[in-house]
């Protein structure tokens, strides 16, 4: 979309130019120049994370072990965002306890990709399901097409807090269909979750991610995403910038 008040094209998107003594019409560059800005505006990134980047990701100073492991995670995310799409796996799966910086790093990657001209969309998992469900119309069998379509087809999807939800067949099917579709089309997802990978549950009573989203979706996520297990550190919301 061209810029409304662009001084070169007056918002038409086109410029007249003389080439070989002939008047031709060329495309104005204002469209390209504002691409990242426009993508940022409609990315759905919550205000709290708007400015999240790997540059403002603070490493704990008082704990050398936590410092080292968190630095390594941060660098993995930074490298992914710089090298995408020339990467082994097109997506990221960040697993860890609450408040350790998963959403911050996931959005940091998304923000960096948007700056590079990719289109990324943030969805909180619960909100996405609610939107799809509230738009679900039993009589016609149709759903909130907009949210569902966006989750299926946007260039890069960030699914925050995957699995933070009771399971029903409907949820399992919906998640599986989104992940399967994206996997089949090699469309990246960046995922955060509090749930452990199957076999990594510290307490057997706790569900794994596979228990919540279904084995098929889990299998595809694995294929598609680089797995990042966050170190066990104190909750940033509690510890602050120590
Ligand atoms: N290392 C860090 N440096 C700077 N800010 C951080 C860091 N870790 C977390 N934060 C900030 O702390 C808050 C909580 O972090 P975040 O939301 O990323 O945690 P989370 O791992 O996603 O937790 P949850 O599982 O509860 O969703 C956010 O405001 C985030 O920007
Ligand atoms: Mg989070
Ligand atoms: Zn223009």
Structural features, described:
The protein is of the alpha/beta class and 242 residues long. It folds into 2 domains: 1-33, no CATH class; 35-239, Rossmann fold (3-Layer(aba) Sandwich), CATH 3.40.50.300. Helices cover 41% and strands 15% of the residues. The chain has a 5-stranded parallel β-sheet, with helices on both faces. A two-stranded antiparallel sheet has the order 1-2. Helix 3 packs parallel to helix 4 (102-115), helix 6 (145-153) packs across helix 7 and helix 7 packs parallel to helix 9 (215-224). The N and C termini lie far apart (44 Å). The relative contact order is 0.15. The mean pLDDT is 89.
Report the strand count. 7
Distance between the termini: 44 Å
Rg calc: 21 Å
Anisotropy-based shape: globular
Number of domains: 2
- Which stretches are poorly predicted, pLDDT < 50 over at least 5 residues? none
Q: What ions, cofactors and ligands are bound? A: adenosine-5'-triphosphate, magnesium ion, zinc ion
Q: What is the percentage of strand-forming residues?
A: 15-25%
The percent of residues in helical segments reads 40-55%
Number of helices: 10
**Any idea of the CATH topology of the largest domain?**
Rossmann fold
> Could you give the order of the helices and strands?
EEHHHEHEHHEHEHHEH
CATH class of the largest domain: Alpha Beta
Q: In CATH, what is the homologous superfamily of the largest domain? A: P-loop containing nucleotide triphosphate hydrolases
For the largest sheet, list the strands in their spatial order: 4-5-6-3-7
């Amino acid at each position: 979309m061209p810029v409304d008040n662009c001084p070169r094209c007056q918002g038409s998107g086109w410029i007249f130019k003389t080439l070989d003594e002939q008047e031709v019409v060329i495309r104005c560059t204002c469209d390209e120049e504002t691409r990242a800005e426009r993508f940022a505006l409609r990315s759905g990134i919550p205000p709290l994370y708007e400015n999240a980047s790997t540059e403002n990701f603070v490493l704990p100073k008082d704990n050398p072990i936590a410092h080292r492991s968190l630095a390594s995670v941060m660098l993995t995310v930074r490298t992914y965002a710089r090298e995408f799409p020339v990467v082994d796996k097109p997506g990221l799966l960040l697993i860890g306890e609450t408040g350790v910086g998963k959403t911050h790093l996931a959005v940091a990657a998304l923000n960096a990709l948007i700056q590079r001209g990719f289109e990324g969309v943030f969805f909180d998992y619960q909100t996405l399901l609610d939107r799809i469900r509230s738009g679900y119309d039993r009589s016609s069998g149709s759903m909130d097409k907009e949210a569902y379509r966006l989750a299926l087809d946007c260039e890069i999807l960030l699914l925050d807090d995957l699995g933070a939800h009771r399971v029903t067949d409907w949820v399992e099917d919906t998640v599986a269909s989104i992940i399967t579709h994206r996997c089949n089309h090699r469309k990246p997802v960046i995922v955060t979750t509090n749930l452990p990978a199957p076999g990594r549950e510290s307490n057997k009573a706790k569900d794994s991610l596979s228990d919540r989203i279904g084995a098929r979706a889990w299998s595809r996520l694995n294929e598609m995403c680089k797995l990042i297990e966050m170190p066990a550190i104190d909750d940033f919301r509690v510890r602050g910038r120590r």
